[in-house]
Amino acid sequence: MRRLAFVLSVVIGSLMLLVGGVAAALIGPDDTVSASPIEVPAAAKVAVTAPDLFPFRNTTLHLTAASTGGAVFLGTANPVDVDSYLSNVTRYHVHRLGVGGGTGSVKDGELAVPGLSPETTTFWVDSVTGAGEQSLDVPLTGDLFTIAVVPVGEPGAISFSVGVTLGGAFRAAVGVAAVGLLLVAVPLVWRRRAAAGASPGEPGHPGVREGAADPQSTSTIEEARNAAVHRAQKLSVLGFVGAVALTGCSSLPQPATLPTEPPTQVAIQLDDVPAALASYDERNNAARTLSAGSFDPSGWAAADMGPVLRSDEFDTAYRKAVGTPEASPPGTHTADAVYSPAFDAYPMWFMMVGTPTTDGVEPDPAAATGRILVFERASVVEPWRMSRAVGLPNDERPTPLPVGPASTASDAQELAAVAAMESVRNFLATGTVTTVMPDENLTAVREDFARDHDDASVGALTVTPIGSAEDPTGPDGAIRLVAVEGGALATITFDYQYNVYPSAGNTLHYTDGAFAQATGQVGERQTLSNKSVVTVAVSIPDDGPPVALNSWPFPVL
User: Fold this and answer.
1) pLDDT digits (tens, 9 = 90+) for 65-77
2) Distances (CA, A) of 344 to 114, 145, 341, 402, 476
3) Measured CA angle at 377 (ends 372, 383), to 5 deg
4) Pick from 298, 391, 397, 409: which is nearest to 349 by CA?
5) pLDDT digits (tens, 9 = 90+) for 9-50
6) Which pTM value belongs to this model?
C-alpha cells in the first residue's frame, strides 16, 4: 500500500510538472499564447480577417503587426465598415487560423492601399498606428468583427499574428508545475529519510523484508503503514486542489454562438446625429453662399445628392437668370425624430424629422409642418448628404423604433411600399385613386396637369419612379423605407414631366423670363416642357390602407 501511494504521487506529480512546465514555456510571463505569424503574400499590402474567426467570449485577443515599409496601422471594426473602406483595395483575406498561423486568399482590387489613410478615419472600434511592431488587445464578446492591417505611408511586406491572453495563466502553469515537483520530491525525500532512520529489524531497514516483522510489532507496523498512505493521499489531494485553485486564476475562453446572418451595421447611432448634421450644415451653407453670391452650383454635390441635388442645381440656374447676387445667411438642422435602419452593405441611409432654421429668421411657432429629410452616404469614409426632402404635418409624425434591426423594414413592408408606389404613380398619371389616399399637395400636382389651359393643350405625360425599376426599395430605387411604431414610413420619389402645346396657329412662352432662361425655353415656342421631381411621404400602417401624408414637387432642369 505504501509503495502504491509512492508510485501514485510520483506519476501524478511528474505529469503535472511536465504539463505545467510546457504550458508556462508556451504562455510566457505576458499570459499570452500566440500562433505563428501570418505572412501576407507579396501580391497584397493589406490584410483582413473573416468576421467569424473568433467564436468566443470572456477572453482577450493579443494582436501584433508590422510592415517592412515602415509604419503600420492595426485596427478592428464592424465588417460592413471594413468591407466598404477596402472595397477597391487588393487585400489578403484570412479565413482560417491555427497554431501554425493562418490561411487565406488574395482578393484583387484597383488600389494597393486605400486612398484615405486609415488613421484619419473614425469608424474603427480599436486601433493603433506606429513604426515597428504594433500591438493591440481586443476583448472578445461574441460579436462579429474584422481585423485590418494596413501600411501607413510606404507599402511593405505585412506580417501579423494573433494570440490569446489568459489572465493569470502563466502563474497557474508555474503553480501546477511547482505542485507537481512537490508531489515528486516530497515522497522521495520522505522515503529516503524513513529508510535511513530505521533500526535493524524494523520495517524500512534495508536488511529487513516487509512481512518478516516480529508478530509482537505487527500492530505498530500497520499503524505506520496507514499513516504513510494517509500522508501520500493527503499530499496528492492537496496537489490537485492547489492546481485547480491556481488554474482558476485565469479566465478561460467560453464558446459563443455567432450570428448566422451576414453582419450588419446601423446607419447612424443617435449620439452621432448632431455631429453629422453639423458637418452637413457646414457644407450646405458653403454651397448656398456660392449659389446665391456667384451663381456657382459646384458646391451642392458636397452636401446633397439625388433629387435634392437636382433641385439645388435648378435653384442656382434660376438665381443666375434673375441676375441679382444676394447674401445667404447660414442655416442649421436639428433632428426631432430619427429613424435609422441596419444595412449589410453601403450605401446606407437614415431618415429624420426636423425643421431647418436660418440665422436671423425667427421660426414660426404656429408652423404645423416639419420636414422629412433623408441622408445617405455612399461609403464609410464619405459624409452624409441629403437626398430627399418632403414636408410632414407635425401631428402625423410616426414614433421611431430603436435604431438598427427594429427600424429596418420587413419584407412584407417592402412589398406594401412597392404597391403604394404603383398606386401613387397611377394617381399622378390618371387621376384615379386606388389603395393610397392622396394628400392635398398630391391632388394639386395632378390638377395642375389636368386643368383647362387657354388656347393650349397638355400631353406626353410621364410619371416614372426614379432609379432602379428592378429594385425600387434598394439603394438605387425610388423608395426610402423605415419601420416605425405601428407600421412603416416611406418616401417615394417620381420624375414627373409633361408638355404644353399651343392651339393651331399660335405659340407659347413662359411669363417668368428667369424660369424660361434657366430651363432653356426662351421666347415663343411650339412646345413648353415642364420637368419636376415629386417626393411623397406615405404612411403604411400594419392594420390599414396606406395614406399619403404630404407631397412636394420641385422643378428640375
Assistant:
1) 999 999 999 999 9
2) 21, 13, 10, 18, 15
3) 100
4) 409
5) 666 756 665 655 555 554 555 555 556 788 889 999 999 999
6) 0.81
User: What torsion, rounded to 10 degrees, do the Cα atoms 100, 102, 104, 108 define?
Assistant: -120
Name residue, grid cell 394639386. Answer: 444
pLDDT digits (tens, 9 = 90+) for 527-542: 999 999 999 999 999 9
- The pLDDT of residue 466 is 98
Of the listed ranges 348-357, 427-436, 448-457, the one predicted with least confidence: 448-457
**Cβ distance 175 to 239 under 8 Å?**
no
CA distance 198 to 100: 56
Query: Contact at 8 Å (CB) between 374 and 388?
Result: yes
Chain centroid offset of residue 378 CA? 14
CA–CA separation, 142 vs 163, rounded Å?
Answer: 17
Contact in structure between 307 and 465 (CB atoms under 8 Å): no
Highest mean pLDDT among 148-157, 236-245, 355-364: 148-157
Q: Percent of the chain beyond pLDDT 90?
A: 63
Residue 315 or residue 30, greater confidence: 315
The residues, ordered by sequence, that sit 6+ positions from 117 with a Cβ below 8 Å of its Cβ are 73, 152
Residue 63 confidence (pLDDT) = 93
Residue 366, pLDDT score: 59
**What is the Cα–Cα distance from 399 to 483, expressed in whole angstroms?**
10
pLDDT for 240 beyond 50? no
pLDDT of amino acid 256: 86
Which 3 state secondary structure label does DSSP give 227? helix
Report yes or no: 492 and 536 within 8 Å, Cβ to Cβ. Answer: yes
391 close to 369: Cβ distance less than 8 angstroms: yes
**Cβ burial, residue 454 (10 Å; 0-12/13-18/19+):** exposed
Is 55 within 8 Å of 257 (Cβ atoms)? yes
Q: Closest by alpha carbon to 169, among 13, 282, 26?
A: 26
The single residue listed with the C-alpha cell 468566443 is 56
E strands in 378-410: 385-393
Nearest Cα to 126, choosing from 112, 146, 142? 146
Contacts 24+ apart (CB under 8 A), 503-509: 503/455, 503/456, 503/457, 506/455, 506/456, 508/456
CB atoms within 10 A of CB 108: 10
Strands 335-339 and 357-358: unpaired
CA 511/CA 528 separation, integer angstroms: 12
Give the three-class secondary structure for 149: strand
Q: Find the helix or strand (DSSP H, E) in which 226 lies.
A: helix 218-247
pLDDT for 497 equals: 96
Specify the amino acid at residue 237: V
What are the C-alpha distances in Å from 207 to residues 188, 190, 200, 214, 223? 19, 19, 7, 14, 21
Contact indicator for 484, 402 with CB cutoff of 8 Å: no
Question: What is the distance in angstroms between the CA of the first residue and the CA of the last residue of the chain?
Answer: 102
| Distance, CA of 197 to CA of 234 (rounded, Å) | 23
